[in-house]
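Running co-folding for fe (ii) ion.
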Amino acid sequence: MSGINYSEKIPNNVNLSEDRTLQRALEHWQPNYLSWWQDMGPDGSQNFDVYLRTAVSVDPQGWAQFGHVKMPDYRWGIFLNPAEADRKIHFGDHMGEAAWQDVPGEHRANLRRIIVTQGDTEPASVEQQRHLGLTCPSQYDLRNLFQVNVEEGRHLWAMVYLLHKYFGRDGREEAEALLERRSGQEDNPRILEAFNEKTPDWLSFFMFTYFTDRDGKFQLCALAESAFDPLARTTKFMLTEEAHHMFVGESGVSRVIQRTVDMMNQLKTDDVAKLRAAGVIDLPTIQRYLNFHFSVTIDLFGADQSSNAATFYSSGLKGRYEEGKRTDDHVLKGQSYKVLEVSNGQLNEKEVPMLNALNEVLRDDYITDSKGGVERWNRVIDKAGIPFRLSVPHKAFHRNIGTLSGTKVSPDGRVISDAEWNAKVNEWLPTGEDRAYVASLMGRVVEPGKFANWIAPPVMGINRQAVDFEYIRFN
Ligand SMILES: [Fe+2]
Ligand SMILES: [Fe+2]
């Protein structure tokens, strides 16, 4: 075990070979990580050679090196963006002071919690997606799934690096616990609810990577502002990889829609039964999946009013999305923000102290960002000349966290009775029948250049390779 040369085996820019303590910690953790990957990583894929992107450095030439590798041999590296000279804290009560190169004692518990919560989502999504390879719609898509999976593994490494390097014994214990929790397991589940949901089919996977990986983007952006400099630099580099995950989701849904509208035009029908008989996913079903993934994901931002959110901001642990580009005072004391409440049987806005509403601020920024891709999906439908529009539901729809949890709200934002909810919920959220239908379409297609009937081919391949390139060698 101790014979492994970590500076070769783990590409890194953190001087791993010169940090004995860190090396020892990783020497203990790495075999456990690999055994987690064997148990919970992509099902039945251990022997495939997959055309993957590997980061070997943070510069433009090094962060995306492509080649066929076996996933258990993937070089999960540790990378921090280059340090900014004399970086200063740029928000909260410590604004103007030097950024921290180590963890201040008074913020230790909160920082550890933030890092563990982020870290927990990374292996969780690999677990959620582990069976999807068995029903991939093409080799191209299978490769994209595996790329997302290995990079989520690397994001776990990124968080474990911080835990090992800066949090001593507690950090090592947390790093072990990250390999012990399991998505959806009753007695030891993952920390956040959306990461305990199943990702049972590829439409769910594309919705997940579009909506839920985008939550990852917003959390990472907020942490990239942190006063704790190693966290800021680590998350900045993670963001470069995250972009591909959201691309997989956006282009995946877009291709499903393309195939559906082509079939609608070919058959000259919008009849759901006829479209299902033709083996494509009808647009109302796509809307219901969208409603589900959007609403479950916006819960991830937490309660609309939160004293923790205020503490994290004021103490400099977690900033806002694009904190540096904002022109206010970056302290936010005495400022207010509008959140929703239910009064007189309807949703009303109320002003609350902005510091307490920072979860809502981040959620609203997320919602604005996620609407962009939905509009691009609508363009595919428009181009086909079909009068149908997808939209994100009202943010109060189907919420499980915060003031709005427990209130029944329609996708267009009306507070409704339980009776109306029960009468309409099958139009708004995927039904058992929808899920069974989508599941019935899932069958493994792996011949290069071939695609399942329910999805259009991509416009181009990965890394300028052809669409029918051999992305996976099955051996
Ligand atoms: Fe990630
Ligand atoms: Fe991701």
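Result summary
Residues 122, 152, 155, 216 surround fe (ii) ion (ligand 1) (CB under 6 Å).
The first strand starts at residue 49 and ends at 54.
Job closed.
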